[in-house]
């Protein structure tokens, strides 16, 4: 765990000017540092490896292609034409016999090229003369040696590194791994997450009523966490009561506990007190970012088996919670899961992006051919702008002028 001087077991920081908020970029660094090394490697079948990070480089188990193959439908020909056609043909999945000089055989795309063949003559370029029965090329000279043959090892040779460790296993990676001969992959274990949704005012179904509002964060965060490498163990509602909150923090066996709400200093904001009561160490207590500044990161006491446990506390307002997710939860989860950090995405601002006077601002934007365009409905309690966005612009204090470069955090499937 981090030994940052910000670690503490007391609860200062909630509006205390002696405990200034952490810079936004530094908060992400602290989240990564607190994760420590990635979780141990496990072996998974290809389908089960989806979403994990490779624990070792993906090396080719064979040459690709493993033999010379035809790139087109047509004729495998040996030497210069005209050629005498051989009976039958070669299909993908067959092992053809050798081809003698001056002969040809029909061949399908992807089929192994017979030994002795010098080229593949495309179907539309070949014609069998009725008078002689010989195959000729039209136009002449198209069957040059090597034409339309994919040579063995064109894509890779055995033991070549195809992908580095830390690569996220996507559907595309699964395809490459299968082509390279893999049935199972060594990947990092995904961090388990328990999502605690705090608040008596939340409803689980129907429209808002009687002073209560729908829980938007439970449905929003669950797929977002999975998309960023987490194994979501359970999602629970916790009432505005310190006792069940303390019990939930104490008894959770997840690698990461994620809470929504109760991070500020309101009359029913019990999270800081519950953390202190359970012996947690605060690593981050407020971040200089809008929305979402009252987010926090804490190290919980280890699990009974000695595993470290961490907690990310998100504000209760929906867009503020999303800001906390991308600031603290995503870097933490990806580092625990062994995923390589992505290169920052930078683009031009299609219009002026308004900023906060002192803090970083995370602003919902839509990327266009002119750059990032700000969207309306961007208040901390709003989700309409986020639903239309494909990224969050990282706007430094004071804002960004139109045409200037800005970093954009792509939004996950959540």
From TrEMBL:
Domain MoaB/Mog: 194-335
SUPFAM superfamilies noted in UniProt: MoeA C-terminal domain-like, MoeA N-terminal region -like, Molybdenum cofactor biosynthesis proteins
Tree of life domain: Bacteria
Keyword Plastid: no
InterPro entries: MoaB/Mog-like_dom_sf, MoaB/Mog_dom, MoeA-like, MoeA_C_domain_IV, MoeA_C_domain_IV_sf, MoeA_linker/N, MoeA_linker/N_sf
Keyword Transcription regulation: no
Catalytic activity: adenylyl-molybdopterin + molybdate = Mo-molybdopterin + AMP + H(+)
Gene3D superfamilies documented for this protein: MoaB/Mog-like domain (3.40.980.10), MoeA, C-terminal, domain IV (2.40.340.10), Molybdopterin biosynthesis moea protein, domain 2 (3.90.105.10), Molybdopterin biosynthesis moea protein, domain 3 (2.170.190.11)
Cofactor: Mg(2+)
UniProt xrefs under Pfam families: MoCF_biosynth (PF00994), MoeA_C (PF03454), MoeA_N (PF03453)
Biased composition (Polar residues): 1-12
EC numbers: 2.10.1.1
Family, per entry: Belongs to the MoeA family.
Role: Catalyzes the insertion of molybdate into adenylated molybdopterin with the concomitant release of AMP.
Name this polypeptide is given: Molybdopterin molybdenumtransferase
